[in-house]
Amino acid sequence: MLKNYFKIAFRNLTRHKAFSFLNISGLAIGMACSILILLWVQHELSYDRFHANKEQIFRVTCNATGFKAAVSPPGMAEQLKKEIPGIKASTRVSKPDTELFQVGDHKFHEKNVFYADSNFLQLFSFTLVKGKVATAMLRPDAIMITEDMAKKYFGDENPMGKIIKKDNKDNLIVTGILANAPSNSHLKFDFVLPMSFLAARDNNVKNNSWTNFNFYTYIQLNGSVPVTSSILSKINQRINSIAKEHVKDLKVKFNLQPLTSIHLDPALQIDLPGHGNIQYVNTFFIVALFIMGIACINFMNLSTARSARRAKEVGLRKVVGAGRIQLIFQFLGESLMISFLSLFLAIALVFSLLPAFNSLAEKTLTLSVTDGNLMFSLLSIAILTGLVAGSYPALFLSGFKPIKVLKGKLSIGGGNLLFRNGLVLLQFVVSIILLAGTIIVYKQLNFIKNKNLGFEKNNLLYMPMNGEMWGKKQALQNLLKGHPLTNDFTIISDLPTNLESGSTNVQWEGKDPTSQTVIPSIDIDENFVNVFQVKMLEGRSFSSAFKGDSSSYVVNETAMKLMGFNVSNAVGKQLTFDDRKGAIIGVVKDFNFKPLQYAIEPVVLRLGKWGGIVVIRTTSANTASSIKALENISLQLNPSYPFSYNFFDKDLENQYRGEQQMGKIFNLFAILAIFISCLGLYGLSAFMAEQRTKEIGVRKVLGASVFNILFLLSGNFTRLILIAVFIAVPVSWYAIDTWLQSFAYRVDISWLIFVAASLTALFIAWLTVSYESVKAAIMNPVKSLRSE
Fold first, then answer.
1. With contact defined as beta carbons under 8 Å apart, do 254 and 239 qualify?
2. Using CA atoms, how far apart are residues 275 and 268, in angstroms rounded to an integer?
3. Which residues fall within 8 angstroms of residue 374, CB to CB, at 6 or more apart?
4. Burial track 475-502 (b if 16+ CB lie within 10 A, e otherwise)
5. pLDDT in tens, 163-214
6. List of E strands, 222-279
């Protein structure tokens, strides 16, 4: 019997090649899309779960009067370990730094450089390929490098014990080779140096300061301590009571953040790059379910569209004694066969598309056929898909009455038609939601790209002041002024892209003594306003003509309002910033100095004494020449350091790389989901045309035109779309509004978005059904009425 079932199934597939192609390709594309999305979702959810003690490791974060940050003071780690018995170990990790490393004649500026305590590898489960975990970080001149860096600097040589020169002066000894940081780690390093090296140069580290919040503190609880909300609450309280003893003048609250939650928790300020977003994970997981649901719906509609072709087969089987259960098993078997064929095709598609998808998502996702758990999951999906997709056709086809079928009086009940319309209605709802989402993602990303940030961001070229350049500021200024391509320059302490530094030690006339707002600051020079084209609202900027400007301040609108001043009275008010007394000499119009997820904060501009970053305004025509001129100046003043530069607008774009990637991925899968939906619409249009063949013939005999027939067949779809609009609009509005809430600056949700999405869905539907409808409308009525 089973052999007969497989034979019939194979014959049906080969006999109706177009039908089989639509069925298998629809399911295969749906499965492939879902597998790709689920691989991405699984990767996002797997962050930091490879650590052996992941459940006991937490990061200490802080909240200083609404300023939520991932950092803590360097003195915290040791003190918490000493005073809280439940803490087994604690370690500190610095923010990623950029350093110059040299081996032989090869010099490179490296960005992913971390400093960590000596027990770094005992707390975390990063793999040390060469070296000893217990001793690799004990000596202050040690350095651990990853396998990629070992290859880059030493080729095929054994790097252990070799010398790497840092910043042209410090000799470091390679004491360990680390495996490359896993792609699902929130700590992504290329070099790890001991904290003792930093302590010899940084008094905050040496003295275990509690005033400089510049490090990430991790603690590991004892394995015997149960990780419950009540226990964590008690530890939090103890941490804050200890902190109050050391941070007496600052209102700050510390919290424990689980290691496995860091990547997907809401982003904190001064956090590590590469942060994820749980909202995107949930959204794409739902999209994956939608795509699989749409693929299953297509299978149902396409199968029922062919029901009339198999009605006599069902009737004959019942006449010769086949029961309904046997027929159900037969049709489910055919469905499972198609599902498994689709799965094999989907796996082939995933393998072929995975490199492009990884490039788009900037991930290193893999699909391993030797992974037993993964293969079991995929087979389970195929079985579930086959059973779900084949359940309705099996029940529907097996329920035909043999007498009516063999007499040619088969009629499709209203209940079945209602069910199929409901399935297609769901497809329209999903299509409209995805189309609306695609439009709003494009509009928001375009808004971010083109938003006026309060300064002119284009044609700004910058160069960090490295090495010897710090001691040659005057010579640097003279050379920049002396060249026509570099004379429009400014020297500032920080780029206004993602300003992280700030102080609560700010005093002004009438300040509430209980207020402790964190106010960022930037050290600028006299050219900042002109180079960045920032607008002055009142007063003036710094000028070399005024010798007293070294103790003066310029504030933005938000800072002015925070201080209770206005444009007419702010200039001349006294201001003390970090114990430096001075007066406000100007107010600048608000400009964005953080990503657009954050509202504009108060900022204080000070006259810089030292330097930091040279920013040059150039023109599109002279960009290459300006870079060359800047390189010559750098080589003249700083010959031992390689020249490095970047573009300001590129840095701004990189801030929204995650949103841009998610937008591209969302658009891709939205298009594929809509394409798969079209297959379902085609299936239903084919079904309706097949069921109404004789009706169409009669209407044509009575004088109906092709347009009349086309309108008749597409009218039902139009009604379904209108119903879908009423369902999809509120759902998509809620989803869009939720996503936009993550941005302090965002586009408005216009009703035109939903009109455009609805009209697009309507157009796609008409385009999809037009083929079968036109074919039915132009059919010779003699053929359709021959049996009458």
1. yes
2. 9
3. 367, 368
4. ebbebbeebebbebbbbbbbbbbbbeeb
5. 999 988 899 999 999 999 999 999 999 999 999 999 998 888 988 888 888 8
6. 253-258
Task: Residue 160: count other Cβ atoms within 10 Å of its Cβ.
Answer: 14
Rounded to an integer, what distance in angstroms lies between the CA atom of residue 534 and that of residue 555?
12
User: Is residue 60 within 8 Å of 76, Cβ to Cβ?
Assistant: yes
Taking the C-alpha atoms of residue 233 and residue 626, their distance in angstroms, rounded to an integer, is: 57
Using CA atoms, how far apart are residues 674 and 663, in angstroms rounded to an integer?
16
| Cβ atoms 31, 388 nearer than 8 A | no
Tokens of 460: 């700004």
DSSP state string for 397-442: HHT--HHHHHHT-----HHHHHHHHHHHHHHHHHHHHHHHHHHHHH
Say how many Å lie between the first and final Cα of the chain, rounded: 37
What is the Cα gyration radius of the chain? Answer: 34
Q: pLDDT (tens digit, 9 = 90+) per residue, 266-301?
A: 888 889 988 888 888 888 888 888 888 888 877 777
Contact 270, 71 (CB under 8 A): yes
> How far apart are the C-alpha atoms of 164 and 340, rounded to whole Å?
55
What global pTM score does this model have? 0.85
Neighbour tally for 564: CB within 10 Å: 14
* Spatial separation of the C-alpha atoms in residues 455 and 492, rounded to whole Å: 15
3-class SS of residue 175? strand
The angle, 0 to 180 degrees and rounded to 10, between the axes of the packed helices 17-45 and 2-15 is 100
Residue recorded with tokens 């939608």: 290
